[in-house]
Every structure is written in C-alpha cells, then in structure tokens.
DNA sequence: GGCTCGATCCTAGCGCCGCTAGACAAGTGG
DNA sequence: CCACTTGTCTAGCGGCGCTAGGATCGAGCC
C-alpha cells in the first residue's frame, strides 16, 4: 500500500502548492491576474490538473479563504491573549483584525469580498470560518453588556470592523485616522 | 442648430437607456449577467455603440453607481426629515440606509462592491458621491459628541452600516435580528 | 520479464467575455 | 449631384473558465 500512500501524499502536496500559488499570485498582481492558465503555468502542470483538485476557480478562492480564516483566528487569539484588561483586549482584537486585513488584502478579499462558494451561516459552514467567529466572540468577552446577546454584539462589532476595512481599502477613509476610529469604536460600542 | 440639438437629445436619451437597461439586467439576473453583448442586444444596438458612450463596462457600472448615490442621498434626507428628535433621526437614517441596500442590491453593489472606476476620497470625487456622504453627515447631526470630529464619526457609523449590509447579504447575519442590531448601533455609537 | 490495463496528464478546443478595426450606409454642406 | 463627415454594424482578436478525448506511464499479474 506504500505506493498508494506516496501518491496520496504527493497529491495533497500538489493541492497545497496550488492554493499557495494562487495566494502568491493574488498577492503580487491581484485576483484578476489569477487565471487558471497562469496558475497552471506557475505550478508547471496543465490546466485540467487544477480541475482534478477543485471543482473550479471558486473552490480555489474558497481554499485560500479557509486558510486565511485559520490564520486570522490565530492572530486574533494571540492578540487578545497578550492584552491586559477588558478594554485593552477589545482594542487589541480590533487592531489585530484591521492589521490582518491590511497585511493580507487578497486573502481578506477571498474571505469576504469574492465568491469562494462557502456556506456562511448554516450547519455546514466550514470549521475554520466558525472558529474565526468564535475567536472574535471570545475576544469580545463580556464587552456586550448585560442587555445584549454576546453573539449579536459580536456581529455588530465585526460588521463595523469589516466596514472600516472595506472603505479604507476603497480609498474612502484616510489611513492616518485609523487609530482614532478604532478608539471611537471600542470606547462607544464596548462596555468595559 | 435644431438638427444637432435633436441628435444630442437622442444621444443623451440612449445613454440613459443604456444605464437603465444595465441596472434592470443586473436587478433581474445579477451583475454577472450584464455583459456588453446582452446589454447591446437589449437596447437593440450593436456592441460598439456602448463604447461610443462609455469607455468600457466599468464606466457603465460607475454610471449606475452615481444614479444610486443620488437616490440614496434623497432617501436618507427624506428619512431624517420625517423623524422627530435626535435619536429618532439617527435611527431613521440607519434604517433608511439598510433599507436602500436591501431594496437595490445591484445598485448597492455598483456603488461599493464592484469596481466602477470612481474616485472616492479625492477632489475629483463625483458630486453625487460627495452629496450622499453629506446627507449622512447631516443626518447624524451632533450625535458625534463634543470629543469626536463629526466627519470621523460619520465615517465610523457609515462603516458599521456598510458592514451590516455586506455581512447580511453574504448570509452571515440572519435578517430577523436586523432591527436589534440597528438599535444596538444607535444606542451605543450615537450620543443622543 | 513481458503484457495488460487503469490511473494520470496533456493537447486541443468550445463557448463566452471585453473590446476594437475597418467596411459601409445615411445624412449634410457645397 | 457629389464629396465628405458621422454614425453604425460586421467581423474578429486575445483571453477567459472549463472539458472531451487521446497519449503515456507505471503497477500488478501471468
């Protein structure tokens, strides 16, 4: 069986290569430049090979999004763990979120802007996505206050962060004021 | 000169037809279905005619976005004018914004999700876009509080609303709770 | 060791996209 | 009546996502 196992390993390896290359290409030249032809050329296989791993381009985007979700969850947890006190924790969470989006624009796009064909709010939502939201929920802790359901609070807080990311990226919000916006958001929304 | 004037009128009329048809097609089948070929067929002209009015597809999307911005500005002003008291005004503004996005998904997408080639935060930002933000700013009035610049406050409030729209559309936030989220946003963010 | 056969991968191509060059008809001014 | 501008169309370019069908190659059996 060793031969089959080796083949499976190689296959999995190649799948990782595809996702990593797609991400790399997107980081260098944007998602528009990520075409199946270019991607195939970079991994030094022909186009149809991509389709033996993924149903189509959407699924490749989705794979990048899942990778990103896992990384974001880790980043959020690391940031909140290092913070001291409730307010600092919420602020660190917010900064960490914005920071992640700024450092990985194509990954963030894959997660929220592009169609990666991922189910979001259903039972078959992929685990990494659920976990990223869980990390958000943990970090916010009891900043929701007694009169508001924590999940609802997390949703609104998340929406605000996501809006900041989107509008900043669109060139609508000058980056210099980012810090002040985070302060405003944390000071007013969170009860800490 | 009458002949030339008539021609100009007809030309302007056809341009409106193009934009309206693009919007209609997007509303019926989504922006993916808005191709230059289909659009040309619907207006009963050939493809190149589109390019005598717009530089390309992006500009057509941009035109729909501008139309949408003007409508949104009007909707926001109407909603805030009808509201009584500062808190009601802010709440009406928020509901009106979300309502607009829900009623006109493709238009909202043209404004904020797609690339319409519009300059956003510079001196040559088209007037309708500036005006829409102005309407937002007016509606929020002095809900910013004394310690926060009104424009900065408007940006954050807007970002939160935009995030709610995006995440709701992505299926991430259940629509039933929309009202409660608006309440949370208004109660905490606005000082009224 | 030679052969069969299934897995694996590639070449070629389909239908569609955004966009444009160049032919052609219609209307205007001399 | 003719030259010419203006407006529109036909046809086609390069590139897209995706797939059918043929070639190749290595594993497993006699």
Automatic annotation (TrEMBL), chains A, B:
Which residues belong to any copy of the HTH tetR-type domain?
A: 12-72
Pfam families, sorted: TetR_C_33, TetR_N
- Kindly indicate which segments of the sequence are annotated as binding DNA: 35-54
Keywords from the UniProt entry: DNA-binding, Transcription, Transcription regulation
Q: Which InterPro entries match?
A: Homeodomain-like_sf, HTH-type_TetR-like_transc_reg, HTH_TetR, MT1864/Rv1816-like_C, Tet_transcr_reg_TetR-rel_C_sf
| Superkingdom of this protein's organism | Bacteria
Q: Name one GO molecular function term.
A: transcription cis-regulatory region binding
* PANTHER family in the record: HTH-TYPE TRANSCRIPTIONAL REGULATOR BETI, HTH-TYPE TRANSCRIPTIONAL REGULATOR RUTR
> What protein does this entry describe?
Transcriptional regulator, TetR family
């Amino acid at each position: 069986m060793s031969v089959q196992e080796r083949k499976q390993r190689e296959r999995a390896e190649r799948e990782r290569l595809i996702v990593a290359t797609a991400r790399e290409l997107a980081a260098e030249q944007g998602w528009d430049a990520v075409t199946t032809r270019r991607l195939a050329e970079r991994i030094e296989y022909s186009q149809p090979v991509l389709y033996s791993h993924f149903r189509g381009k959407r699924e490749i985007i989705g794979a990048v999004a899942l990778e990103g979700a896992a990384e974001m969850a880790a980043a959020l947890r690391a940031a909140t763990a290092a913070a001291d006190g409730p307010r600092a924790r919420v602020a660190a969470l917010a900064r960490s979120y914005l920071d992640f989006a700024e450092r990985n624009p194509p990954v963030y796009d894959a997660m929220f802007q592009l169609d990666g064909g991922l189910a979001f709010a259903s039972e078959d939502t992929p685990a990494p996505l659920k976990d990223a939201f869980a990390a958000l929920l943990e970090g916010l802790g009891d900043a929701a206050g007694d009169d508001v359901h924590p999940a609802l609070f997390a949703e609104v807080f998340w929406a605000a962060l996501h809006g900041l990311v989107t509008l900043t990226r669109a060139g609508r919000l000058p980056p210099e004021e980012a810090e002040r916006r985070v302060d405003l958001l944390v000071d007013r929304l969170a009860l800490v």
